[in-house]
C-alpha cells in the first residue's frame, strides 16, 4: 500500500488512462468508481474498484464508501478527489503529493494550465510561485489531509452538484493562512467546460442555487473574496553540460536530473558514438532539454561552458545554474529530495559541492543500465579534493562570471561570496569500463593539447592515464579499478599516498516519490573506443592539413636576412616597438609615421608549420599576444618560442597580408586612429591588412 490515494468516478470517456503509470512508478494507490455502461471496465487500472450508476457526485459517493471502509481510507496520509476529465501524468501527481505533505498542508489543489477551462482565476497557474497560500481550492481536484478529511467529510453529501463546498471547507478548517494552497509547481489541464459533465444532466435543482444555499448555511458571504496570503516562490533550476562520447551514461544522466531540474542545456562537442542520437531521442520524448552540437577538436571546455552558463542565465528566467559533466550526478547526501534542498538556497553566493568518486567493483550488476544503481562502491570522502560549483544566475549576469577548467570554480575573485554546501554531493562515475576510459582519456588528452593555450598542469589525470595506456598498464579489470581509485585526486597525487585506497558501499536510492523512467536507448553503442579514437584522429589530421594549407601560405618570399617595415593599409603607419628597447621589459606595440628608425624594422624567422617569429631590430624582442580575448593589445616581449609568439602571414590581396597569431588564430588590427594595435577575429576590413616593405 502506498502513502497516498487518488479517488474519482469515471465514465466511459474518462481520461485517466493517459496518466496512470505502472504501479511501481507511482507513489499513490487508485480507487476508481465506474459509472459507465460496460461492467468491469477499468478494473485493471486500480488497486480498489467499485461500480455505481446512481449519478451521485464523487464526494457523495466517497462519503458513503468512507463510512463503510473507514479503516482503509484513514491509512492514507492524503487523498486526491479528481474529476475524470483531467489531463496530467503520474510524475505530476507524485510531485503534487510530495509538495502537499512536505509543506504540511491540510487542503490544496494542483494549479490549472493556462489553456484549461476554469471557473475562478485564482486556480490558474502562477509560474512565479512554487505554491500560493489561499482561502480557496476548487471541488474539481482538491487534496485532503487525513485531518482535513475528518473535519469536512460530513459536508460531502450536502448537495447534488458539490458547488459551494469549496467555499465552505476553508471556514470549517478555521481559515488558516498557511494550510490551504494552490500548488503552482504541479499543473493539470481541465478539458471540459464547466457544468458540461454527465452529473449535471440529471439534476433537478440549479447548481448555483445549491451553492448559495450551502454558503448561507455555513455563514460564508456570497460575495466571496479570493485571497492569497503569500507563498513560496518557485526556484527555476537549469543545468549546463558539455559532453563527448558518453553513450553508456548520457541517458542515465538526463533521466535522473530531469526529475529535479526545470531544464537541461547540453552541448555535444563532436561525439562519434551514439551520444547525440540518444540526446535527440530523449528530447523527442518531451523532456525539458536543449541539445546543441558543435564539432570541436580542441578541448576548450572553459570557453564553451561559460557560453552555456551565460546562455542559461539569459534564457528562461532561471535562478540557479548547475554545471555538470555527464558522469556527475547531484544528490542529497542523506537520500532526501534534491529539489527541496535547492529551493532553500539563498541566491547571493557561489556554492561548492564535493565529489564522491565511484569505482568498478566485482559486486556491480553489469546488466543494470542505470549507472548509479550499477556502481555502488566509492572512495572514502577523505580522498576527494575536487568540487563543482552551483551558480546563481543573477551573479552570472551582474559579475560577468566565467567558469574555470572543469567547472571547479568561477573567475569572480573576491567579488562574490563562496560556500561549501553541507548535505549535497556529486556522485562521480569517471571510470566505467576499459573501452569507455580509453575513449575518454585518449581523445580528451589529445583534445586538450590541441588547444593553443593549454597548460602543462591542466588535466594531469588525463595525461597520467594516457601514458598508462601507451605503456600497456591498463589491460585488465584490476588495472581499471586501480585507475578509478586514483582518478583525479590531488590528495593522492601530491601526498604520494601508497597504502591501498579504501572503498565503501554507498547504495543509491531515489528520494521517496521520485520514479525513474526505464533506460531504453543505451544498448545501441555503435562504436568502440578504437572507432572513436580513429575517427577523432582523422578529424584532427584533416584540420591540421587545412590550417597549414590556408594559413601557412604566402606569395611573398620572406627572407630572414632582410628587415621589413610592417605598414597598415588603412593608416599608412608603421608598426613600432618601444624605443627603450630593454630586453627584459614587456611593452605594447603601437603605430607611428615611418621615420626610418630601427624600432620600426622587423625580421621574420621561420619556425615551421608556415609560422614565423617577428623580432624587432632595435630591442631584439618578439611580437606576442598573451590572451585569447579579442581586443588584447599587441606586445613585444622576451623570446620564449611559444605559440603566442608565432605568426602566420596570410596573403589576401596582391602585396597585402593578414598577420595571424598561432595561439589565438586572431588577426592584427589597428584601433584608436591607428595608434593602438590589437588582435581580433578576421574581417574584410583594411584595418587588418598590412604591407611588408623590405628595408634594402
Describe the structure.
The chain is of the alpha/beta class and 696 residues long. It folds into three domains: 4-233, Alpha-Beta Complex (Spore Coat Polysaccharide Biosynthesis Protein SpsA, Chain A), CATH 3.90.550; 237-531, Spore Coat Polysaccharide Biosynthesis Protein SpsA, Chain A (Alpha-Beta Complex), CATH 3.90.550; 564-694, Trefoil (Acidic Fibroblast Growth Factor, subunit A). It is built from 18 helices and 34 strands. Strands 11, 12, 13, 14, 15, 16, 17, 18, 19, 20 and 21 form an eleven-stranded mixed sheet that branches. Strands 1, 2, 3, 4, 5, 6, 7, 8, 9 and 10 form a ten-stranded mixed sheet that branches. A four-stranded antiparallel sheet has the order 26-27-30-31, with no helix packed on it. Helix 14 crosses helix 15 (460-470). 41% of the residues are buried.
User: What is the residue-mean pLDDT, rounded to a whole number?
Assistant: 85
Please bin the fraction of helical residues.
10-25%
The CATH class of the largest domain: Alpha Beta
Radius of gyration (Å): 34 Å
Major beta sheet summary: 11 strands, mixed
Low-confidence stretches: 581-585
Whole-number total of structural domains: 3
Q: What does the overall shape look like?
A: elongated
Strand content: 25-35%
The tally of strands reads 34
Measured between the Cα atoms of the first and last residue, the distance is: 95 Å
CATH structural fold name of the largest domain: Spore Coat Polysaccharide Biosynthesis Protein SpsA, Chain A
Q: Give the count of helical stretches.
A: 18
Main structural class: alpha/beta
Tell me what the CATH architecture of the largest domain is.
Answer: Alpha-Beta Complex
Amino acid at each position: 500500500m502506498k502513502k497516498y490515494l487518488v479517488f474519482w468516478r469515471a465514465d466511459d470517456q474518462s481520461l485517466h488512462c493517459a496518466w496512470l503509470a505502472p504501479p511501481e512508478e507511482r507513489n499513490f494507490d487508485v480507487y476508481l468508481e465506474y459509472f459507465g455502461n460496460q461492467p468491469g471496465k477499468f478494473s485493471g487500472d486500480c488497486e480498489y474498484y467499485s461500480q455505481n450508476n446512481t449519478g451521485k457526485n464523487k464526494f457523495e459517493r466517497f462519503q458513503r464508501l468512507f463510512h463503510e471502509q473507514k479503516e482503509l481510507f484513514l491509512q492514507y496520509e492524503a487523498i486526491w478527489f479528481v474529476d475524470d476529465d483531467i489531463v496530467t501524468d503520474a510524475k505530476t501527481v507524485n510531485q503534487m503529493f510530495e509538495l502537499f505533505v512536505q509543506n504540511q498542508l491540510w487542503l490544496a489543489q494542483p494549479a490549472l494550465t493556462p489553456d484549461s477551462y476554469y471557473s475562478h482565476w485564482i486556480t490558474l497557474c502562477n509560474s512565479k510561485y512554487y505554491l500560493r497560500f489561499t482561502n480557496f481550492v476548487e471541488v474539481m481536484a482538491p487534496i485532503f489531509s487525513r485531518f482535513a478529511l475528518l473535519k469536512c467529510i460530513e459536508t460531502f453529501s450536502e448537495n447534488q452538484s458539490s458547488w459551494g463546498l469549496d467555499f465552505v471547507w476553508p471556514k470549517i478548517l478555521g481559515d488558516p493562512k498557511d494550510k490551504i494552497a494552490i500548488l503552482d509547481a504541479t499543473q493539470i489541464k481541465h478539458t471540459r467546460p464547466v457544468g458540461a459533465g454527465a452529473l449535471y444532466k440529471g439534476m433537478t435543482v440549479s447548481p448555483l442555487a445549491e451553492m448559495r444555499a450551502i454558503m448561507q448555511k455555513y455563514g460564508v458571504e456570497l460575495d466571496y473574496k479570493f485571497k492569497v496570503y503569500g507563498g513560496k516562490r518557485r526556484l527555476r533550476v537549469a543545468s549546463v553540460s558539455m559532453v563527448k562520447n558518453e553513450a553508456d551514461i548520457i541517458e542515465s544522466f538526463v533521466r535522473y536530473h530531469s526529475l529535479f531540474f526545470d531544464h537541461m542545456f547540453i552541448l555535444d562537442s563532436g561525439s562519434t558514438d551514439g551520444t547525440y542520437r540518444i540526446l535527440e531521442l530523449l528530447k523527442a520524448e518531451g523532456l525539458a532539454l536543449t541539445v546543441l552540437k558543435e564539432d570541436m577538436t580542441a578541448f576548450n571546455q572553459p570557453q564553451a561552458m561559460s557560453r552555456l552558463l551565460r546562455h542559461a542565465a539569459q534564457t528562461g528566467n532561471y535562478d540557479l545554474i548547475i554545471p555538470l559533466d555527464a558522469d556527475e550526478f547531484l544528490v542529497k547526501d542523506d537520500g532526501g529530495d534534491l529539489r527541496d534542498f535547492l529551493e532553500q538556497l539563498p541566491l547571493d553566493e557561489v556554492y561548492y559541492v564535493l565529489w564522491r568518486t565511484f569505482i568498478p567493483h566485482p559486486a556491480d550488476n553489469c546488466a543494470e543500465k542505470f549507472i548509479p544503481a550499477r556502481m555502488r562502491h566509492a572512495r572514502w570522502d577523505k580522498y576527494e579534493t575536487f568540487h563543482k560549483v552551483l551558480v546563481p544566475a543573477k551573479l552570472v549576469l551582474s559579475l560577468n562570471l566565467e567558469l574555470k577548467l572543469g567547472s571547479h570554480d568561477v573567475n569572480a575573485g573576491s567579488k562574490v561570496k563562496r560556500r561549501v554546501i553541507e548535505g549535497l554531493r556529486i556522485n562521480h562515475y569517471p571510470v566505467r569500463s576499459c573501452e569507455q576510459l580509453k575513449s575518454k582519456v585518449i581523445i580528451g588528452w589529445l583534445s586538450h593539447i590541441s588547444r593553443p593555450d593549454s597548460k602543462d598542469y591542466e588535466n594531469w589525470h588525463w595525461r597520467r592515464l594516457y601514458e598508462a595506456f601507451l605503456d600497456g598498464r591498463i589491460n585488465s579489470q584490476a588495472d581499471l579499478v586501480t585507475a578509478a581509485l586514483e582518478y583525479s585526486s590531488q590528495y593522492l597525487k601530491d601526498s604520494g599516498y601508497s597504502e591501498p585506497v579504501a572503498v565503501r558501499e554507498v547504495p543509491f536510492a531515489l528520494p521517496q516519490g521520485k520514479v525513474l523512467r526505464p533506460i531504453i536507448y543505451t544498448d545501441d553503442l555503435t562504436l568502440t573506443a578504437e572507432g572513436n579514437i580513429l575517427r577523432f584522429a582523422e578529424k584532427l589530421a584533416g584540420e591540421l592539413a587545412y590550417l597549414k594549407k590556408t594559413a601557412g601560405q604566402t606569395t611573398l618570399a620572406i627572407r630572414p636576412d632582410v628587415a621589413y617595415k610592417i605598414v597598415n593599409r588603412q593608416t599608412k603607419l608603421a608598426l613600432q616597438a618601444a624605443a627603450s628597447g630593454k630586453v627584459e621589459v614587456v611593452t605594447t606595440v603601437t603605430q607611428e609615421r615611418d621615420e626610418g628608425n630601427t624600432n620600426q624594422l622587423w625580421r621574420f624567422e621561420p619556425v615551421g608549420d608556415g609560422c614565423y617569429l617577428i623580432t624587432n631590430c632595435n630591442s631584439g624582442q618578439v611580437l606576442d599576444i598573451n590572451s585569447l580575448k579579442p581586443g588584447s593589445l599587441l606586445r613585444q616581449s622576451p623570446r620564449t618560442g611559444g605559440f603566442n609568439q608565432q605568426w602566420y602571414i596570410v596573403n589576401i590581396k596582391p602585396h597585402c597580408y593578414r598577420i595571424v597569431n598561432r595561439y589565438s588564430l586572431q588577426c592584427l588590427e589597428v584601433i584608436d586612429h591607428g595608434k593602438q594595435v590589437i588582435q581580433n577575429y578576421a574581417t574584410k576590413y583594411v584595418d587588418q591588412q598590412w604591407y611588408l616593405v623590405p628595408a634594402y
